[in-house]
Design a protein that fits this description.
By secondary structure, the chain is of the alpha+beta class. Helix content is about 45%, strand content about 10%. The strands form four sheets. The protein has a five-stranded antiparallel β-sheet with strand order 2-3-4-1-5, with helices on one face. Strands 6-9-8-7 form a four-stranded antiparallel β-sheet, covered by helices on one side. The longest helix has 24 residues.
């Protein structure tokens, strides 16, 4: 039966199944020729129509599509899909329609799960009560291997091993054999469904997603996993997205793992697929996607598109720009910020020493993101912006978590590579073995109350790795133990440095500037006429230029990247007004007109210039020294921290006017 089914499908390149399903599958190397036939063979075996046991290694985890093939159907209708990839998707739908997985009545008697095989070579079993089939010969990352089962009798069918876990497959979902065939036929007859930009805008409003992420969601989540580019230039033009916006949207949706993506889009298509091609069809689709999103993810706070644009300019942080904005706009809804994480060490075969677990990893991510983002959020977002207004609460929640006496954070120990616990004991007098681990660790440990060290094993070359060095920020202070820790591992950009900054006076003054509400709503701290008017007056008095020219001069002196576009946003200037002010500075010999790569502006301070590659910004050498930017081999290699801007404007003017 399966051979006949494959012959009846239109010609397609079976090797393109991985890029066609990119973002809906994991392990692309196991999605290859024969996968579609594998679906049919598995269905034949489970229903008793097939004679032999199907071969394995045909698709990685494809049972997730059972009850969720609607996600693939949505993508097959999207306008941006290349013809050769669309043909694979349509063929998959047509093959799937002929299997028992498309039948809601059959799905009610199916389950999937994990099984420990009694013998590796025996991965299927069948009798009059049904059948069980292990879908591939690879471990699942859990205990055992993945299976699908169909029950046809009154009791469970036989199993070739011990079932460890199981769950029913979705039965009341969108797909039926008739709908799959009809949708595939409509696409072949009419081409892809029309794109509706207004529907994407409505989806963004209804979910709190950025416009770019909403557009990508409506288009079936174009994905770049495994190197496959989801959108070409023409597709972005139709969707009204710049490359940077599309990239930011992809990063925003990247937090959705494969199972969540399939669940989200499984049942959003209309009962009659032809509605997708009718007026209002895409708007109705957007409404159903929004409802599914709210049920799965909740409603995100509304973030202004202008804020998302600014966030996308600062892509050196680990989280997607929209996710950073959501974190700050609604910190009380983030469980990582509001609950103390379990960071007790546990064994790890990957890094070779103990580690602090998933909760610790997520908390460290929030800490790193917050310390990297607070500076630009404070400086480059206007007063009253919901993301900017959330900074004080994010800082307060992080400080609360850091005060927990059992929280562990890693302190970069790479330069201690090869050192053992015995080697390090003299640096931590009074230390004993670490006794709070979740599970026994494989290597020696030490714990002096502040610092925990977990010794590393050996790598493939037989060399000992760097030990895991951890500290309890709740006990980190100016005492002797903390000084010993700093002497051993302190480094720029470390968690030690982040904790110091978050608890320090600069962070406190930034929070104070935001909570003081001294700026008028909609105005920026980067405008020295508002944040440092006394310094502007000094510049006017000493140079003789006007107030606007003095403000621009201070911005060029102090700010890391005062591009023309940003300056106009901050100062609320038209292009004509900006040109007039720059001309005044040039005529006063305070700046020089020039063109320089990646500068984004036309006037510069006299003197030397330091180049930079993305994501860093080039700048005047004098300014790099002022901001303590790291310069290596003639290029800026760090994102400089501006700090409280009234102080920075004053310091820059005092240094330059000497």
């Amino acid at each position: 039966m399966s051979d006949a089914l494959i012959r009846r499908t239109p010609p397609h390149d079976d090797d393109l199944i991985a890029p066609a399903l990119s973002g809906f599958v994991e392990g692309s190397g196991y999605w290859r020729a024969g996968t579609l036939a594998g679906f049919a063979d598995a269905g034949d075996y489970l229903t008793g129509r097939g004679e032999g046991v199907p071969a394995q290694y045909k698709g990685w985890g494809w049972s997730r599509f059972i009850g969720r093939i609607g996600a693939v159907a949505l993508r097959a209708t999207a306008f941006h899909i290349r013809p050769e990839l669309r043909e694979v998707l349509l063929s998959m739908l047509e093959v799937w329609a002929e299997t028992p997985f498309a039948d809601p009545d059959v799905r009610r008697r199916m389950r999937t799960g994990t099984i420990e095989l009694a013998e590796d070579s025996v991965y299927a079993a069948r009798n009059g009560d049904g059948a069980l089939l292990v879908l591939h010969g690879l471990a699942t990352g859990e205990q055992g291997r993945h299976f699908v089962e169909l029950r046809t009798g009154q009791v469970d069918p036989p199993a070739p091993g011990r079932i460890v876990a199981s769950e029913p497959v979705p039965s009341a979902s969108w797909e039926t054999p008739e709908r799959l065939r009809r949708l595939a036929g409509l696409v072949r007859e009419n081409g892809p469904a029309p794109w509706d930009r207004a529907a994407a805008t409505a989806l963004a409003r209804a979910t709190g997603l950025s416009h770019a992420a909403a557009a990508l969601l409506l288009a079936g989540i174009p994905d770049v996993s495994y190197g496959y580019r989801g959108l070409d230039t023409e597709a972005r033009k139709v969707m009204g997205l710049k490359q940077s916006e599309a990239d930011a949207g992809e990063r925003e949706l990247m937090a959705l793992r494969v199972p969540a993506r399939l669940d989200l889009l499984a049942a959003v298509l209309p009962d009659d697929p032809e509605q997708l091609w009718q007026p209002g069809g895409q708007a109705a689709l957007a409404e159903r996607i929004a409802e599914a999103w709210r049920a799965q993810q909740g409603v995100r706070p509304a973030i202004p598109e202008t804020t998302l644009t600014v966030a996308a300019e600062h892509d050196s942080v680990r989280m997607a720009p929209a996710a950073v904005c959501t974190l700050f706009a609604d910190p009380a809804s983030d469980p990582v910020l509001t609950r103390d994480p379990d960071t007790r060490l546990r064994a790890s075969s990957v890094i070779g020493h103990g580690w602090e677990g998933d909760e610790g990893f997520r908390f460290k991510e929030r800490l790193e993101v917050a310390c990297a983002a607070i500076d630009w959020i404070y400086a480059e977002l206007p007063a009253g912006d919901p993301v900017r207004e959330g900074v004080p609460q994010v800082v307060a929640l992080l400080r609360e978590r850091l005060a927990h006496p059992r929280l562990l954070l890693d302190a970069d120990g790479n330069r201690l590579r090869g050192r053992t616990v015995a080697d390090l004991l003299p640096a931590f007098p009074g230390a004993e073995a670490y006794l709070d681990a979740v599970e026994p660790l494989d290597h020696p440990t030490l714990d002096d109350g502040l610092v925990v060290v977990a010794e590393a094993g050996f790598d493939r070359r037989g060399e000992r790795g760097a030990p895991g060095i951890y500290f309890r920020p709740g006990k980190y202070s100016a005492d002797e133990r903390s000084q010993r820790l700093e002497a051993v591992v302190d480094a720029e950009g470390s968690n030690l440095a982040r904790v110091r900054w978050l608890r320090g006076p600069e962070c406190a003054r930034i929070v104070e500037r935001i909570t003081s509400q001294t700026l008028p709503p909609g105005r920026y701290e980067t405008d020295p006429r508002l944040s440092a008017p006394d310094v502007v007056d000094e510049v006017v008095a000493k140079t003789g230029v006007g107030t606007d020219a003095a403000a621009l001069y201070l911005q060029l002196l102090a700010l890391p990247a005062p591009t023309d576009r940003r300056v106009r946003r901050w100062n609320q200037w038209t292009a004509a007004r900006h040109k007039t002010v720059t001309t005044e500075l040039v005529e006063a010999s305070l700046v020089v007109a020039d063109r320089r790569p990646r500068a984004g502006r036309g006037v510069f301070l006299p003197g030397d210039w330091v180049a930079a590659d993305k994501p860093f910004h080039p700048m005047e050498t004098w300014k790099a020294d002022l901001l303590d930017a790291r310069v290596i081999a003639g290029k800026v290699r760090s994102v400089p921290f501006a700090g409280p801007l009234p102080e920075l404007f004053a310091r820059a003017w005092q240094s330059r006017s000497r």
